[in-house]
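Example record for the data management plan.
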Amino acid sequence: MSYLGKLDAGDQEYYHSWDDIAALLDGRRDAVQGDLFERPKPVPEWREINVSGIEVKRVREFGQVWAALAVWRRLGLDKLFAGLMPEGREDIRWDLIACVLTAAKFCEQDTENAVAGEWLPKTALCDVLGLDEEKVNLTRMYRGLDEILAHKDAVCAHLQSRWGEWFGTKLDFMLYDVTSSYFEGACETNPLAQRGYSRDNRPDCKQVCIGLVVTPDGMPVGYEVFAGNRADTTTMREIVTLMEEKYGHANRVWVTDRGMSSEENIAFLEGRESFYLMGASRGLLKRYESEFHDGSGWRAIREGLSVKLVKGAGNENYVLCKSADRAKKEQAMLQRQLEKFKACIGKRSSQLAGKPSSKTQSVQQCVGRLRERYPSASKHFECEVLLNEKMEACGLALNEKPGQLEWAGKTHGAYVLRTNTDCENPAELWRWYIQLTEAESAFRDLKSDLALRPIYHHLQRRVEAHILVCFLSLCLWRTLEHWMGVSGLGDEARQFLIEMRQIHSMDVHLPTKQGQTVRLRVVSRPEKELAALLSRMKLRLPNVPLKLKM
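Corresponding structural encoding:
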């Protein structure tokens, strides 16, 4: 089991008391590096308070940003960026701006404009980091993005080292997948912004493609940004080359879905003596039809899921897979598409019957758009435009391609994997392949929780910096999930952060009988359930009030 506890003693706990935050506010950065539990108890100061005049001011959200900073420091990113971006003549150090940008993305803020204008003034982030809130403006954040981008390779190398220390990750398996993220705006000056296959169902918008490499544990290793019209298969060669330049060749297994399974990619990997495990094209289902119907050689992985190993040419093997659950899902999806496609064709045909059209080309274009909308259903039919004696389009006729739907029914839930590894256990190979869901999960987190889409920047360098910040926040997210997992709390980082919203910092003004006002900055206490959760994770909220200047 992976264990996040294998950290240096000085890295295990963060921001436990207001003494630590006071040290940060005073600029004493190193004061928080030691053992935060061995602090002398503060000497009590006695004042006679006018209870009726007590006021609570400057209430700020504390819990989520505190969690973000705890994970940031646990990953050692504070020291990394401090070394990469040494202090200069700037009003605010760039490493702290990097922290602000990543923490904001981790807390689901979508734009720098929203961070500077709305979110940051409502949180205690600047208090904890000792920053002048007015100076953390939009312009400084944009400049911070420009400064961060130059250190992408160093950041990825640092994180890969962390995964190796914590999980013993040797990069034996690299899970690779591609997604896209669309833009708001024309993006005319960005050559990467192109229209292509949209996984966000926004073909009307320009986009970029992002190739992400993760470990079987789901920890991000690296990524690359490609033009929005780049085909998935063409990115494989570039990613493999870049990863091998950074981390060496090694005996690594590349695991990808069938979108990467081209003969060119297979030849490329074999030429480099690399191993692969890929989803194969559906065309292989026809080749191995008899094997699917042969009842011998199958291994049950669980109820409704069986696999079978078939020898291929040379050193390549194929894993045939049959899933009952997947078959039901694919059947239902096809049925829905068939119903919608036929209904749309029927509706358009009725319209033409009542009002024939002389613009037959326009009718054909309409049919083409319907085919694009319902590809799984339309590929089983030929659609004929009916003409009357005036050569006007007066209807549409669907003609089913012989045997197509019957074959689709037979192959529902069936798929093929191809590999050149020396493993001959089909169940083990299937388990390796199914880990690809970790990459898919990472993309879901990036898009839903970490605001990767849409992209509002237009300049290429800002777009790439935005994606780097999203990548960093994904690393924080995944680290928090594993931290919770080894604490026996599951891996619902989202729910944890929702619970942390109840924690606030505030300034308590205590008027004394002597006419002075004592101002204390305190953190609210969590509810019993959250307190127990934090205790399991060995996290302690600040429990010593910070005395502010009179």
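Summary line stored alongside the record: The CA atoms of residues 160 and 221 lie 6 Å apart.
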